[in-house]
Amino acid sequence: MTGDAEIARVLRNLAKERGAERSFCPSEAARSLAADWRPLMPEVRRIAREIGLVATQRGQEVDPVSARGPLRLRLPPGD
Length: 79
Known about the structure:
Number of helices: 3
Structural class: alpha+beta
CATH architecture: Orthogonal Bundle
Oligomer: single chain
Number of strands: 3
Number of domains: 1
Mean pLDDT: 95
Distance between the termini: 30 Å
Largest sheet: 3 strands, antiparallel
Helix content: 40-55%
Strand content: 5-15%
CATH class: Mainly Alpha
Radius of gyration: 11 Å
Shape: globular
């Protein structure tokens, strides 16, 4: 099982690689952690919220845990 710290590390790395102006799909993190990545998605979204990443849908900020459907993650402004 993939731990919270490993998920957080992957999310931070993806966010830093993209920089403040670009976003990424949370599935990119899940896919890099496990071949069977879909079960990881709720944890990836939860941890993204915990570490302060901004989640958006169609350009609007949303809660990554309660949002339904695809979303994007990015660094908060100023990071």
